[in-house]
Write a structure and sequence with these properties.
mainly alpha
Length: about 100
């Protein structure tokens, strides 16, 4: 999803690095059940969302953030992983002002 999205190169690279850190965190959470790993997972996902919410991220960035969080939540539900993930910020739409 990230590689195929219309993101700037820097944003794409940063998001992929964050995603690459997650397997080790999930492995440690599974091994130890320590809340610090759950906190780090949630922090990494929020970091990804924050990166994708930046103005210079690209046109598809907020939709990608939403898709990532939804998929991660679904994975957590399927596997019984107790890590709460916050929703990304809503996509802002521009409204045209009525002219009098």
């Amino acid at each position: 999803m990230v590689s195929g999205a219309n993101l700037t190169a820097k944003v794409q690279q940063t998001v992929l690095l964050q995603l690459d850190s997650l397997p080790n965190l999930y492995s440690e959470l599974n091994r130890t059940y320590e809340s610090r790993f759950a906190d780090r997972i949630a922090g990494s996902v929020q970091g990804i969302v924050r990166i994708l919410a930046a103005k210079d991220a690209g046109a598809e960035a907020l939709q990608l953030a939403d898709a990532i969080v939804k998929r991660m939540r679904a994975m957590h539900d399927r596997h019984g992983i107790a890590v709460a993930l916050k929703a990304p910020p809503a996509v802002k739409t521009t409204r045209k002002k009525k002219s009098a």
